[in-house]
Amino acid sequence: MEMYQSHLIVSGRVQGVFYRASCQDVAVKYGLNGWVKNLSTGDVEVLVQGEKEQIEKLIEWCKKGPPNAKVSDVKIEWQEMSEEINGFSVR
Description:
This protein is of the alpha+beta class. The chain is built from 2 helices and 5 strands. The protein has one domain: 2-Layer Sandwich (Alpha-Beta Plaits), CATH 3.30.70.100.
């Protein structure tokens, strides 16, 4: 099974709306590894590893986010796999 890695920067009203916890729930549901964290800019950063099809499902979720989020942009960068991450954490 080929593993992929994607790095996302999510902009909009994405802090204080349970974005990180919800993102973690969705990532775990899709069997993905990585992390999600708030940035001082007000954006949310996501690093995700797993099967490409599952990552693409998470990216689609990230474009909407949880009910109170207002996502204005998702920057997506596919990367070479860095060190393998186990589990999906909120940082």
